[in-house]
Amino acid sequence: MSRLSHFEIHMVHRIGWLRAAVLGANDGLVSTASLVVGVAAAGSGKPEVLIAGLAGLVAGAMSMAAGEYVSVSSQTDAERADLARETRELAETPEAELEELTRIYVDRGLDRDLAEKVAHQLTERDALGSHARDELGISERVTARPIQAALVSALTFAVGAVLPLILALLVPETRIGLLVAASSIVGLAVLGGLGASAGGAGVLRAAARVTFWGALAMGATAAVGALFGVTVG
């Protein structure tokens, strides 16, 4: 009888970089488009709109990188502290830790004898890894990576932010606000759909969610710009 290989790709394996990428691209597009629309609504000329947008791109990318690095580093610190505590407990109270692992498998549906055998074998092979995975929920595949998250966030923010800037550069000055807003809404829908597709989630709901909040942000900044009508210069 032939043996068939079975290969699966699970979306959770991408969670380390996917969240940062989707957040960065969406934030870059929304914040820069909102800034461009708001400054244009205030009556500023194209040079001022582009300068404001470029400044927003640089500041936003750096802010996203710093924010992601700090946030994910905090998660990493928490994981390391849990693993250090688990290492001490395994060294000081190995029998109690073995019983704890056994109860976890019993709670998951194994009978007591089988749970004990599984706990013994996994403990002999990799005690810390078994407790990290089954007790703490820490896995190498989905562990936090601060530098990766920071770089992905900054890069995708810049990519998202470039789109409204290019459009603002190409369209007539009097139509910057309208065309940037309209194209950004379409771009947000596409980004939301792509992010959902990459993560295995529903495309339409994700696209609608991102589009709604992006449109709300641009509408708010346009209202502020029109209300104050301050020209940068």
Automatic annotation (TrEMBL):
Q: Does the keyword Isomerase apply?
A: no
Q: Is the keyword Membrane in the record?
A: yes
Q: Per its UniProt record, what CDD domains does this chain match?
A: Nodulin-21_like_1
Q: InterPro entries from the entry? A: Ccc1_fam
According to Swiss-Prot or TrEMBL, what is its membrane topology?
Multi-pass membrane protein
**Broad class of where this protein is predominantly found:** membrane
Membrane-crossing segments per the record: 21-43, 49-70, 149-170, 176-198, 210-230
UniProt keyword annotations, A-Z: Membrane, Transmembrane, Transmembrane helix
Positions in coiled-coil regions: none
Q: Where in the cell is it found?
A: Endomembrane system
* Record-given protein name: VIT family protein
- State the organism named in the record: Albidovulum litorale
Upper lineage: Bacteria, Pseudomonadati, Pseudomonadota, Alphaproteobacteria, Rhodobacterales
